[in-house]
Design goal:
The chain is α/β, with parallel strands linked by helices. The chain contains 16 helices and 17 strands. The strands form four sheets. Strands 2-1-3-4-5 form a five-stranded parallel β-sheet, covered by helices on one side. β6 and β7 form a beta hairpin. The protein is elongated, with a radius of gyration of 46 Å. The two termini are about 90 Å apart.
Length: about 550
């Protein structure tokens, strides 16, 4: 059914249309005194307005301009002969009728315009719904982007409240949060300021809702409405709410993942919430959960790392202090042993010399361990001094070979070098590279049986051509360009595959009788690894149990 208004000064015309609409299909009213038209359309906007242009006392063009804003969605039908009417006025009409048209045609014209008007209204409503949906989707996307952009729990809660505001335009939110302080806090976001009574009611509701999440079990926090901390954000503080919470529609959601409760949120609005409102609200409340979990884990990891850093610092300081304290008495013991062995304090029998030699060897061994500890603590503290310069790796190999040849020979081993000619220079600290190679060759001498060979080999390779055990592939994958590869190849006891991964761990030793016999600090290889990393190089090992090992390191070619 539609509402039709006829505006006409002609009595016969009014009578004609009154009969036409007497069957009750449409609501029909007549307006003969045109001075009341503003009052009429203000009270009720017609679906169809029929203007009788044969009424000569009125400026219809001017009248339409005045009333059109009041009834812009009304269908306009003009009753005219088209010959005398203003052309601009005719263009503004939805349809034209005249006195000569039969009733069926007039009714059909009105019916068609009503259908068109209804279709336009439905289309307009659909467009509004689509616009609302699009706006909400944009708000949800924006909120999700904000969630993904931070690991700050306080910001995440604020972004959640902002997202709800953008999507639903709430009057009031009450969020019980466990993420922003060391203790639970009630975050209140409101359009206007609140009375103490309303704040008290919100606190009580939050506490009850919180406890309802732990029915049958003990909640992690003991909170009550009297002691609960409140943080308010008022949008328009000059105004104040004077309402009962029961007068407003509300929605509630818990922000919970498994047994972990991050908070509870409740929103209030004067107008009723729709099903779409509820869906949007729950979506935002759920979206914030995983970012809050990630932020919590990040915070825990951060705190754990700080504790580990502190422990590492304390450990390094302890090692440094202890090592320094041990050096002085060890030096004194070594000097005393040297004096005794020299015979300056009198002749010593063979048994005495034997025990003094044993003591001297162990003092030397202990000194080596202390030196390793000091080196390691310096490296880890970033206090190790490096003196980089362009140099040839042959210098390092020749130095170590000549220095350890006697030790190898004394054990019945052959120590040789296979050096590629015309190798390019590297940018390195010769002393530290000598320390690395000395450690590798010394280990080879320790763990290689009598009569076997140890070879020091050097060659030029591109990083892409370096082949290593999968355990060390990650380290090698970081290398780019050309490198000098130095290898120490022995025919010793080898290393089991399960131990390869831990070969460069601190204090690691291969568990067999020979390793226990020769001893060591277990720090030589970790120190070598860190020294080479300081050279932007790498170290790795290829080995077979009972067949020997191949310890290799790479130094980048000097630019």
């Amino acid at each position: 059914m539609g509402y039709i208004l006829l505006v006409s000064e002609r009595a016969d015309e009014r009578e004609k249309f009154s009969k036409l609409f007497a069957f009750g299909k449409y609501e029909f009213e007549v307006l003969s005194d045109l001075t009341y038209i503003f009052d009429s359309v203000n009270v009720r906007v017609p679906d169809v307005i029929i203007f009788d242009l044969f009424s000569v006392s009125v400026d219809f063009k001017g009248l339409l301009k005045k009333i059109r804003p009041l009834c812009e969605n009304s269908a306009l039908i003009l009753n005219t002969d088209n010959t005398t009417a203003d052309k601009e006025l005719l263009k503004s009409a939805n349809a034209i009728i005249n006195d000569g048209m039969n009733d069926d045609l007039i009714l059909a014209t009105i019916s068609m315009n009503l259908r068109m008007k209804n279709s336009m209204e439905r289309l307009s409503a659909t467009n509004r719904d689509l616009a609302d949906s699009l706006y909400r989707l944009n708000a949800l996307y924006s909120t999700s982007s904000q969630f993904a952009g931070t690991l700050d729990k306080k910001k995440l809660i604020n972004y959640m409240v902002e997202g709800i505001d953008k999507s639903l335009s709430f009057s009031l939110t009450s969020t019980l949060s466990f993420c922003t302080e060391d203790e639970p806090v009630l975050l209140i976001n409101s359009l206007y300021d609140l009375s103490e009574e309303i704040i008290g009611a919100l606190k009580l509701r939050a506490v009850l809702q919180y406890k309802s999440q732990y029915e049958g079990s003990n909640p992690p926090y003991e909170i009550n409405s009297e002691t609960l901390k409140v943080s308010k954000h008022i949008k328009y503080p000059a105004n104040k709410f004077t309402f009962s919470l029961f007068q407003y529609d509300n929605m509630f959601a818990s922000i919970k993942l498994g047994e972990t409760l991050f908070g509870c949120v409740e929103i209030f609005k004067e107008a009723p919430f729709s099903a779409e409102d509820a869906k949007c609200f729950q979506t935002i409340a759920q979206q914030v959960i995983l970012p809050l979990k990630s932020a919590t884990l990040y915070q825990e990891i951060k705190e754990t790392n700080l504790k580990l850093e502190k422990l590492e610092r304390l450990k390094s300081e302890f090692i440094s202090i202890v090592s320094h304290e041990l050096r002085t008495p060890l030096t004194s013991i070594k000097n005393s042993l040297d004096i005794l062995l020299s015979g300056k304090c009198g002749e010593i029998n063979d048994a005495g010399n034997k025990f003094l030699d044993m003591a001297k060897r162990n003092v030397q061994r202990l000194s080596g361990i202390i030196n390793d500890l000091l080196d390691l603590s310096k490296i880890e503290a970033g206090k190790m001094d490096f003196h980089f310069k362009k140099m040839n790796i042959h210098q390092v190999i020749d130095y170590v070979k000549n220095n350890l040849s006697l030790s190898a020979k004394g054990k019945g081993l052959v120590l040789s070098a296979e050096e590629s000619e015309n190798l390019p220079d590297v940018n390195g600290d010769s002393q530290r590279l000598e320390q690395v190679l000395t450690n590798l060759v010394s280990n080879a001498i320790k763990f290689t049986p009598e009569g076997k060979h140890i070879t020091i080999k050097s060659e030029l390779k591109n990083a892409s051509d370096i082949s290593v055990h999968p355990y060390f592939q990650d380290e090698i994958s970081k290398l780019k360009g050309d490198y000098i590869i130095v290898s120490v190849i022995d025919e010793g006891i080898g290393i089991a595959e399960k131990d390869l991964l831990h070969a460069f761990d601190k204090f690691a030793q291969i568990e067999n009788s020979l390793s226990r016999k020769v001893g060591g600090s277990g720090l030589g290889l970790p120190i070598a690894k860190q020294l080479l990393e300081a050279h932007k190089g790498a170290i790795w090992c290829n080995s077979q149990l009972d067949k020997g090992s191949d310890f290799c390191f790479a130094i980048p070619v000097a630019e």
